[in-house]
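Long-time lurker. I teach an intro course on protein structure, and each term I like to show students one example going from raw sequence to a predicted 3D structure in token notation. This year I'd like something fresh instead of my usual example. Would anyone be willing to generate the tokens for the chain below so I can use it in lecture? Attribution to the forum is fine with me.
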Amino acid sequence: LKPQKREPWRKTGYRCKTKGHVNRTAEAIDTFVQAVIAERLRQPDVLETVPGSEGPRSTEIIGEIDIQHARIARAERDYDEELIEAADLKRIRDQSKQKIDTLETEKLTLAHGATTVPLLSTDDPATTFLEADLDTRRAVITALCTVTLHKERQGKKGFAPSSVTIEWN
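-- Reply from a regular --
Happy to contribute to a lecture. Here you go:
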């Protein structure tokens, strides 16, 4: 199920595309799933259970990321030596950081479980996950587990964690 944005006065939700069996508000589900994933990322064995992404494209991406970091460092040196203006430094940093984010996301999605770099190699993968952009969080969730939503009784108020099943890969 993918979240669907509805009319402006309605909240984002999840809806079964085939027969409309499930129609759920996304906010509580997203909060619950992210909390479960963050807790899993706090476990010491998480690196052992998530496959890495080794291969030629992975190596290329690492090289491209290194190039972008070098570009930022060069711009910073040029700024320190007064060869470029602050606006040029900011533009180069912003462009390079955007490329790095895109490359990191691609690296995450290369193999089904490509969350080992950079997320799992950080000091606090759970916080890194929670602060990551939406695409990165989705890639991590996809790599770690399958989330299944179950139908809740119509008109039921509140959120029941039992209505969400998380199966670890």
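Some talking points for your students: The first strand starts at residue 3 and ends at 4. The two ends are 18 Å apart (CA to CA).
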